[in-house]
Amino acid sequence: MAARFVFGDLMKIILASGNAHKAREIGEMVGCAVLTLKDVGFEGEIVEDGETFEENARIKVMALEKFVRGFSRWKGEVLLADDSGLEVDCLGGAPGVISARYAGLPSSDTANNAKLMEALKGVPGPKRTAQFRCVLAAKLVGGDMEIFEGICRGKIGFRARGANGFGYDPFFFPEGFCRTFAEIGAEEKNRVSHRALAMVKFREWLGQ
Description:
Oligomer: single chain
CATH architecture: Alpha-Beta Complex
Number of strands: 6
Distance between the termini: 12 Å
Largest sheet: 6 strands, mixed
Number of helices: 6
CATH class: Alpha Beta
Helix content: 25-40%
Order of helices and strands: EHEHEHEEEHHH
Structural class: alpha/beta
Strand order of the largest sheet: 2-1-3-4-5-6
C-alpha cells in the first residue's frame, strides 16, 4: 500500500550514505531533495556487517533513525538506505556485498575495477554475465520498515568505456545495450538501472 506522502518543495529524503553520486541519482528519480549523512551532521561510521544487501540496508536505515530521533527538524523526513552492488555469475556472485570495498580499504573505484578485471582475466565474453542488485530500505521515524529490490542483468566488458557514472559503470553493459552504464547517460540509466527499478517500487510506496 502506498504511503500517500505529499511531496512538495519542503519534502526531503535523508539517505543513509555519504555517497553524493547515489544521492544525486535518487534525487533525479524521485524529484525532491535528497540529503546525505554529511548534510544532516551524522558523524562516525555505520558498520555494514550484514551478509546480504537487505541486511546492510536495514542496518543503515536503523542507524540513521537512531540519529535523527535527537533532532526534531529531521523527524518528519523519509529515511532511506540503499545497499547495492555487482554480482558476477562466473565469480560466484562476487564482489557482491563488498562491491564498494572489493579491493580493500580505503575504497577506490580504480582499484576495485582493476581487481575485477584481474579476476575475469581469460574469461570469454559469453561467460562474463553479471547483474547489479539494489535493495532499498525505507521508513519514517517510528514507522514500519519497507524493502524494495531491483535487479539489472548484463555483462562485463574488457575495458572501461564512458566518462559518466561511478563504480563499475564503465565496465557494465546492461542487457539490450551495446553501451556501458558510463556511456548511456544519466537520463537513460535512471530508467533501466537496478536502482531505477527499485526506485519504481519506492515511488509507488510514496504514492507518486
